[in-house]
Amino acid sequence: MNKGQLLYEGKAKRLYATEDEQILFVEYKDSATAFNGEKKAEIDGKGNLNNKITTLIFEKLQAAGIASHFVKQLSPNEQLVRRVDIIPIEVVVRNIAAGSLSKRLGFDEGTALPRPIVEYYYKDDALGDPHITTEHIDVLGIATATEVEELYKQGLAVNDILRPLFAEVGVELIDFKLEFGRDGAGNVLLADEISPDTCRLWDATTGQKLDKDVFRRDLGNLTEVYEIILEKLGGK
Ligand code: C5P
């Protein structure tokens, strides 16, 4: 499979066409960004780490019955995925209060929620990815009620698989963000990446942050903690 025309460049990845209409080539970049692109850095090795971690997680999800766009890893920083039209909704699942939820509702970071919750954010850089409700999704016309139900169900199903998977290796899955797309037949398919860029992961014993908050909050060396996650997932 060959890398064709560049179709899209995002903050962390580039997407290329291939000779197969249905398959895209993804290249993970070494760029780290936070706060809607206000904070930026190039971090050697980050692309490889996220490519490998995403590969391991999508493989584990597929083995557990969650379909996704993931096809296979090709090289340290490249993978093949199925072509989908991304639904402009970030689906965030939370087990423990942190980040914007703590700010918004006043829960101390680290407070266990009585049950996992699912939130939606409108994927729009110019608007700063605002929190939205199902009513907003309806009037924006960005997903049908049936699709939103699917996002909700799949979000919780992914949590039910990933939370114990991380717990087994001594890591608490605090929260994470998922993206979904529509395939050619209109099916909603899990897409994008799942990595320490898109999850909050805390060492269950020490509470050490093993995710992008290390970069957002200047807490240390990002690649060191991403390597810890890769190793714990059996990837090293
Ligand atoms: O910032 P907030 O607390 O809402 O983030 C919730 C979760 O979603 C975190 O794991 C964060 O890394 C992830 N997220 C993301 N991309 C965004 C916003 C949040 O991966 N644009």
Describe the protein's architecture and organization.
By secondary structure, the chain is α+β, with helices and mostly antiparallel strands. It folds into two domains: 6-82, Phosphorylase Kinase, domain 1 (2-Layer Sandwich), CATH 3.30.200.20; 85-221, 2-Layer Sandwich (D-amino Acid Aminotransferase, Chain A, domain 1), CATH 3.30.470.20. It contains six helices and 14 strands. Strands 8, 9, 10, 11, 12, 13 and 14 form a seven-stranded antiparallel β-sheet that branches. Strands 1-2-3-7-6 form a five-stranded antiparallel β-sheet. A hairpin with a 5-residue loop joins strand 2 (13-17) and strand 3. The longest helix has 24 residues, at 145-168. It is globular, with a radius of gyration of 17 Å. 35% of the residues are buried. The structure holds cytidine-5'-monophosphate. Residues 90, 92, 98-101, 129, 175-177, 198-200, 212 line the site of cytidine-5'-monophosphate. Cytidine-5'-monophosphate binds next to strand 9, helix 2, strand 12 and strand 14. This is Phosphoribosylaminoimidazole-succinocarboxamide synthase. It comes from Caryophanon tenue. Its EC number is 6.3.2.6. Belongs to the SAICAR synthetase family. GO terms for molecular function: ATP binding; phosphoribosylaminoimidazolesuccinocarboxamide synthase activity.
